[in-house]
Specification:
alpha+beta; 4-stranded mixed β-sheet; 565 residues; 5-stranded antiparallel β-sheet; globular
């Protein structure tokens, strides 16, 4: 469990100084000095540091803002790369061009030494390494920001992949998350457009995501759950997990020596059927989403292998999605409305699937839905691409400030990713037509007698509870009103920003009055020739004029930094 706390001034100044300095330096380097100014971070860092950092700023005009954000996250390291990868699954928070850029994030972390891995393995498995493994390769077969993977052979002869967490990763992540939480708090306090997205909540959610990712027992549990779900399907294979040798920082699983699904040359050489692999891969994805509601959320080619007999093997179960029955049915309702070109029903269904603070303008929203339909649906079915549909849905939701829940986004992203892999294997594959039977099955299940009877029973139970509780609620409200205990709380949004702006205006006016007073007073002193005198001019008057000039320049710089005169 990660231990994250809000850091105070002492923590920010001393305990996290080196990392904080590095983060701010990189922000200045990639042209985000204005963000640091808006966060009013002057009170937390030394002014001398600001001047040095500004001298290091590079000329980066040739890169877009989205590219610079990606570069910042990559240079900041593991925790921030993971933050970018998580944000790339949140279209309700960031625009589609930034989602596309963050999806390109790569870890650039050198592998750690084998003696460190050996020490971790022996400490976690409570035994010397040579009593657990016959052999283990000292060079990792994969290295990432959280862990490394080694090829090994157990004492009983089984070949396994051993995933070992990086030493000290938890402590590093905790420091980064505390600084990240502090920056998010400043964003929410000082930048109004960021406060809508609630950055503090984003950091809190990200903390929960990282907690799951650095606990390998959760990944092992995901693999076991999927293995049980797909037990009756011989066309798909999930690697075996050795739970007796798995801990939160060590994962031991069966070593799979298959063919990467986009390695067309090897697939052809080994005599595998590309069209059959395409169908089976699409089937396992659709079955997980529409029948089981628990699915692999990152099915890119690196996580899919082809085994002898045209069997599909899915690897890396650290990121999974979960969709309940009701949400799946709501999604099918949206699909039906779009297929039947019912703009009003499609708008209602999309609103039901998303979260929002203020309902969008219905007429404008339905018009955009109609444009979306005309763009995609007036063409042959086999020409419709789920990936393009998905991208336009994201643009539509972001334009109307709708928040797509993470698991629904992961579902759409998984469908689009699998479609892309399928088209590499078989360019003639029609993902939309292939998904139709799975969608039809949910549609029929929704209207089955068992389901209708269950819905009626549930509604009856809710109505009974309401009728039973309603009279008591009325009596409680009446009693509280009579005893003057009824309190109505009103919350005003945006007043803090308005108050800060008013304080800034009044401070500038006060500053201007002081400058004017210095100028007038100094002029009177010069006219009255108050000693001491220099070249016939009062020294006190000269000092007053200089002070007024310095204060005036200071005020002008402060105004120009804000970009508003």
């Amino acid at each position: 469990m990660l231990s994250i706390r809000k850091i105070g001034v002492i923590g920010r100044t001393y305990r996290h100084l080196n990392r904080y300095t590095q983060i701010l330096t990189i922000l200045f380097k990639y042209g985000f000095g204005e963000l640091v100014d808006l966060l009013r971070i002057d009170q937390y860092i030394d002014i001398g540091f600001r001047m040095i950092s500004r001298k290091r700023e590079e000329r980066i005009e040739k890169f877009s803002r989205s590219e610079r954000i990606r570069m910042v996250l990559e240079e900041l390291g593991s925790t921030y790369v993971k933050l970018g990868q998580v944000l790339s699954t949140r279209p309700d928070l960031i625009p589609s061009d930034l989602i596309h850029e963050l999806a390109r994030l790569q870890d650039h972390v050198p592998p750690f030494d084998f003696p460190d891995a050996k020490r971790i393995l022996e400490a976690e498995l409570c035994a010397p390494i040579d009593t657990i493994f016959q052999s283990i390769d000292e060079q990792p077969i994969a290295s990432a920001s959280i862990a490394q993977v080694y090829r090994a052979r157990l004492i009983d002869g089984d070949w396994v992949a051993v995933k070992v967490q990086r030493p000290g990763i938890q402590k590093m992540v905790e420091v980064d998350l505390e600084i990240m939480l502090h920056l998010a708090t400043l964003m929410e306090r000082h930048i109004e457009e960021f406060s809508f997205h609630r950055p503090v909540r984003i950091v809190e959610e990200f903390t929960r995501v990282l907690e799951k990712e650095i606990d390998f027992t959760l990944e092992a549990a995901n693999m076991q759950r999927v293995s049980r779900n797909l037990l009756d399907d011989s066309t798909v294979y999930i690697p075996r997990v050795y739970m007796d040798r798995t801990t939160p920082v060590v994962l031991v699983m069966e070593l799979i020596d298959g063919i990467k699904i986009n390695d067309m040359e090897r697939i052809e050489t080994d005599g595998l059927d590309r069209k059959l692999l395409t169908v089976r891969g699409a089937n396992v994805c659709l079955r997980q989403i529409f029948e089981q509601g628990f699915f692999h959320a990152d099915p890119h080619p690196g996580n899919i292998q082809a085994l002898p007999g045209n069997v599909i093997c899915l690897l890396d179960w650290g990121m999974v999605g979960s969709i309940d029955q009701r949400t799946r049915e709501d999604f099918i309702t949206l699909v039906d409305a779009v297929a039947l070109r019912q703009e009003h029903q499609a708008a209602k269904s999309l609103l039901k699937l998303t979260d929002w603070d203020r309902e969008p303008d219905v007429r404008e929203f339905e018009r955009d839905i109609a444009d979306f339909m005309s763009l995609h649906l007036y063409r042959p079915l086999k020409e419709i691409r789920i990936g393009r549909l998905f991208q336009h849905i994201l643009d539509l939701a972001f334009r109307h400030r709708l928040r797509i829940p993470p698991d629904i986004f992961l579902m759409l992203k998984a469908l689009g990713t699998v479609e892309g892999v399928a088209l590499q294997l078989n360019p003639e594959f029609d993902m939309v037509a292939h998904a139709a039977p799975f969608i039809q099955k949910i549609r029929f299940k929704k209207l089955s007698p068992e389901r209708l009877a269950g819905d009626v029973l549930h509604l009856t139970e809710l109505m009974f509870r309401f009728l039973n509780q309603f009279p008591q609620d009325i009596l409680d409200i009446t009693r509280m009103t009579r005893q003057q205990d009824l309190v109505i709380n009103l919350r005003h949004e945006g007043l803090d920003q308005m108050r800060a702006t008013h304080d800034q205006i009044s401070n500038r006016i006060s500053f201007s009055v002081i400058i004017a007073g210095l100028i007038v007073g100094s002029a009177l002193i010069v006219i009255s020739e108050t000693p001491p005198m220099i070249y016939g001019i009062s020294l006190i008057g000269i000092i007053g004029f200089l002070a007024a000039a310095l204060m005036g320049v200071w005020l002008l710089i402060a105004i120009l930094r804000k970009g508003r005169l």
